[in-house]
Amino acid sequence: MYDTYTIFWRELKRYKKSRSGVLIRLIQPAIWIIVVGNIFSETQPLIQSVGFDGEYIEFMAPGVIILTAIFTSIFGGVNTLWDRRYGFMNKALTSPISRSAIALGKMSAISLIAALQASLIIGIALAIGVTFPNPFMIIPIMAIVVLFSLGFSGISVTLAATAKSQETFWGMINLMGMPLFMLSPALFPLELLPNWLAVVAKLNPVTYTVLLVRELMTGVSEGGIPILISLGVIFAFVLAMIAIASYVFTREVNKPF
Amino acid sequence: MYSIETKSLTKSFGDLVAVNDISFSVEKGEIFGFLGPNGAGKSTTMMIFTTLLKPTSGQALVAGFDVMKNAKHVRENIGFVQQETTVDEYLTGRENLLLQARLNHIPKNEINHRIDEVLDLIELTDKQDQAVVTYSGGMRKRLDIAGGLLHHPKVLFLDEPTVGLDIQTRRKIWEYIKKIHTEFEMTIFLTTHYMEEADNLCDRIGIMDHGKIQVIDSPQNMKNDLGNEIISLLVDESNNHNSFLSELKKIEFIKKINEDNLKLTLFVSNGTEVIPKIFQISSQLEIKITSISLTQPTLDDVFISYTGHEIRDDDSKYNRKREHAKMKRLRA
Asked: Complex ipTM, two decimals?
C-alpha cells in the first residue's frame, strides 16, 4: 500500500507541475459538449422517443463526462514509456518496492487525474446550462468516474508496458479508445443502434458506466438495465483490469527495454 | 565476507555472449572499477548485479544474497546510480530525494534527517527547493548520486558516473565519491571507460573486453607490471635493425618491447640507466635515433597491453555491429 502511494504521489506531483496540460486535455471534451451538443440539438425527438424529455445536451453531457474519463485515463499510461526510456523505471525496479505497486500507483494517480478533468467538464456543462435535478448526485457520479477510470487506466498501463515505442502505444490507444466510446450510448440511445451493434455495445463496460451516470444525473432510466447490474459490471471490469495490469506490467518490465 | 561474488556468470542474448563465464569477487569496503570499451559487457554485468537482468547461467551474490533467488534482499541492500541522470525535472531537489527515500523504505521519522545529511554532503542544501529543471548537468548528477546513497546501501553501483561532464565537474564528483566511501564505509562498484577515473578512485580494477575479465589488480600493480617507465624510440631504417632489437632485449631493465615499424616502445624499470645503454648499442650498430622520450606509464598503456587496442569509439565498425546485434535481440 505504502509503495503504491509512493508512486501515486510522484505521478500527482508531476501532474500538478504541468499546468498547461490540464487545459489542453480539456479542449477536446469541451468542443464535444459545446459543438456537438448544439449541432445535434435538433435530434431531441429521437431522444424523446426513448423516454427522455430534456434537451439533447443534457442527454449527452454524461457521455462527454465519460469521454473525458476515457481519454484522460487511456492516455495516462504513456509516461510508463518515458520512465523506461529515462531511467526512472530502473530506479524503481532496483528498489525494494514491488512491480505491481508501480502499476497500481500509476493507475490510481491516472484515475484521480481523470476524475479531476471530468469534474472540470461537469463545471463547463453547468456553465452552458445543463442542470442537475439533484445536485448531491455529483458525489456518487464522481465515485463512479474514479472507479471507471481506474479500470481504463489499467488498459493504458497494460498497453504502455507492452509497447516498445511511442508509435506502437499511440496506435493501440487510438484503436481502443474511439470504438469503445462510439459503441456506447454516450451520444445516442442504445435503442437507436442496429441489433447486432447493440449486442456489441452491451459487452462494453463504457455502456454501463454511461447509463449509470445518466440515470444519476437526469433521473431517467434507459435500456432497462438495473443500477445494480451496471455497478456490478463496472466493479468486475475494474477488478479484471487491476489483475491484468499488475500481471502484464510485472511480466513486461522484467524484460529488457 | 565479500560484497560481490560471481561464479561462472554468463549472460547471452541469443547467440551473442555479452558476459562470458566470469568469476571474481569484490571485498567489503572496496572501490572496484570495471574498465572496458563500449560493448565489453560492463553494463550487462552491472544490470545483473542490480537485478535488472537475469543471468543465463552461473551465480552472482550481492551483499550476500543471490540475485536470482533473493532479488528483493539484494534490492534492499544496493544503491544504483545509472549512467543517464534519472532525477525528475518537474520536482525540486528535495522532492526527488523524498521520492527516493520512500522507494527505499526509509522509516518516516528518519527521512528528513537523511535528506539533510546527503544534501549537505553534495553541497546542494541551498538549491534544494528549486525545480531540477534549473539545475546544471553536474548538479543533477550529484543529486542522482545522493539519491543512491540515502538509504545507506551496503553496495553502491555507479554506472559511468562522470560520462558527459566537464573536467572540473568530473573531479568534483570524484571528491564526492571518495567522501561517500570514507563517510559511509560502503563498497562501491563502478564502471568507466576513463582510465584516469579508474586510476584516481579505484582500489582495484578489472579490465573487461569481449565479455571476459582480462585482468584484475590494483592500478599501481598493473602499471608496475609494465615497469614504471616507458621509453619511446624512433629510429631510422637500417640493415642492422634486427640485431638492434636483439641487443636491446639483453638489457636487464627492459621488461617488454612493442614494435610498430620503426617506432619502438620499451617498458622499463630503470629508464635513466637504460637510455645511455641504448645509445651505446645504436652507435655500435650505426643506427640513427631520430627521437627518444621517457614517460610514466598511464593506465591507457596498461589497457592497450591487455586488450591490444585502444578504447574503441562508438563509431568503430566492430562496435556498431555488436551493438546492432544486441539491440535486435532485445527488441525481438
From this structure: 0.85
**What are the CB-based long-range contacts (under 8 Å, 24+) for A190-197?**
A190/A222, A190/A223, A191/A49, A191/A50, A191/A222, A191/A223, A192/A46, A192/A50
Per-residue exposure over A11-33, b if at least 16 CB sit within 10 Å of its own CB, e if not: bbbbbebeeeeeeebbeebbebb
Q: Are B118 and B145 in contact (CB under 8 A)?
A: no
Contact status of A12 with chain B (Cβ, < 8 Å): no
A184 Cβ neighbours under 8 A, 6+ residues apart = A63, A66, A201, A204, A206, A207, A210
* 8 Å CB contact of B82 and A10: no
Task: Give every CB contact of residue A230 below 8 A, 6+ residues apart in sequence.
Answer: A208, A209, A211, A212
| Cα B126 from Cα B120, distance rounded (Å) | 9
pLDDT band at B308 (very low <50, low <70, confident <90, very high): low
Alpha helix stretches (DSSP H) within A18-163? 19-31, 37-39, 44-49, 56-76, 79-85, 88-93, 99-127, 138-162
H-only helix segments in A19-55: 19-31, 37-39, 44-49
Residue B317 has pLDDT above 50, yes or no: no
DSSP B41: S
pTM of the model: 0.82
Closest CA to A17 of B139, B140, B92: B92
Q: Which of residues 147-206 of B touch A (CB under 8 A)?
A: 147
Residue B233 pLDDT > 70, yes or no? yes
Is B240:B250 a contact under the CB 8 Å cutoff?
no
Distance of alpha carbon B139 from alpha carbon A43, whole angstroms: 61
Burial B211-243 (b: 16+ CB within 10 A, else e): bebbbbeebeebbebbbbbbbebebeeeeebee
DSSP string for residues in B85-152 = ----TTSBHHHHHHHHHHHTT--HHHHHHHHHHHHHHTT-GGGTTSBGGGS-HHHHHHHHHHHHHTT-
Report A:156-185 residues touching B (Cβ under 8 A). Answer: 164
* List of chain A residues whose C-beta atoms are within 8 Å of the C-beta of residue B50: 90, 94
Nearest to A94 among B80, B95, B105 (CB): B80
Q: Is the pLDDT of residue B309 over 80?
A: no
- The C-alpha cell at B169 is 565537474
Q: What is the mean pLDDT of each run of 10 residues along chain A (257 residues)?
A: 91 82 81 84 78 82 91 91 90 93 95 92 86 84 94 95 90 89 86 85 91 86 82 95 95 83
Burial A103-126 (b: 16+ CB within 10 A, else e): bbbbbbbbbbbbbbbbebbbebbe
**Going by DSSP bridges, is the β-strand pair B229-235/B263-268 parallel, antiparallel, or unpaired?**
antiparallel
Per-residue pLDDT at B99? 94
C-alpha closest to that of B307 among B42, B16, B29, B121: B42
Cβ count near A47 (within 10 Å): 23
Rounded CA-CA distance B96/B133 in Å is 12
DSSP conformational letter for A190: G
